[in-house]
Specification:
Elements: E1 2-4, H1 7-19, E2 24-29, H2 35-47, E3 50-55, H3 75-85, E4 89-91, H4 95-98, H5 110-113, H6 117-120, H7 124-139, E5 143-147, H8 151-163, E6 169-173, H9 193-198, H10 200-214, H11 220-232, E7 237-246, E8 260-268, E9 271-279
Parallel strand pairs: 1-4, 2-3, 2-5, 3-4, 5-6
Antiparallel strand pairs: 7-8, 8-9
The structure holds adenosine monophosphate.
Adenosine monophosphate (AMP) is lined by residues 29-30, 36-37, 39-40, 146-147, 149-150, 173, 175-176, 183-186.
Length: 282
Amino acid sequence: MKIIESVEDIQLWSQSKRGQGQSVGFVPTMGALHEGHLSLMRRSLSQADVTVGSLFVNPTQFGVDEDLDAYPRLLEDDMNKLADLGVNVVFCPEAQEVYPQDFKTWVEVPSLAQHLCGASRPGHFRGVCTVVSIFFNLVRPTWAYFGEKDFQQLRIIEQMVQDLRMGVNVVVCPTIREPNGLAMSSRNAYLSPEQRENAGMIYQALVEMRQHILAGETQADAVLSKGRAMLDKAPGLTIDYLEVVDYNTLLPVSCVEHAVIVAVSVCLGLVRLIDHIDVKEI
Ligand code: AMP
């Protein structure tokens, strides 16, 4: 596996692969790799001629009070995992390589970024869109793989790719979960064994709310009350948001008439976790 840290080198490498007629798969991550990340890598390895995985804790998507410094960094472990899978290149630049001193450009999709996670994390999706744009310009991938778990991020990136005609095919990969239903996340490493067990309630509540809708409940408030009651049973868990949103616009709905997503963000101690479930069969 080739380790590339400079923007020039990743550009040259990708250019040469494309020049040889090879397709390039790209999986951007912030590292602390778990099975969710690895499932994206495997998907790329099965589809593209060559696969680039990036490990970059992107400072611009963290707010001032957030966990940038504390975010887990396990570069060596991550590289071993990627090498074992057969990933061709790991791109792991330093922050100043990605954001030189005279950096001034930002990319954002405001209408999709104001609600849900955007409401409590102003500027987060602007940081995500900007770094993904930079990386797409460097790697020029044929396919880029993103997890459905971060569905708001995914929608925003799909919109950005469409609007800016980036010519990258976004491949959506399903959420990988722990046996108790907890969606895998790098932040799960901060949970105590007890918190991890209690966090299983997040997915149980989502499944219950989905069933309630499929059984004919059309009032979002009624669906949400059911979910809140379940989440309240998990010790130490506080709800940041719990919403039923339109599947396409991501705006909250009061009456469930079309495809929706039930989205949740909770805190367990200091750890913020997100998850969602879709209800498309309406
Ligand atoms: P992150 O390192 O958190 O920025 O995530 C990098 C990529 O992995 C994003 O496309 C995420 O949506 C995806 N991802 C994170 N957790 C999971 C999971 N549990 N299942 C599938 N994909 C995931």
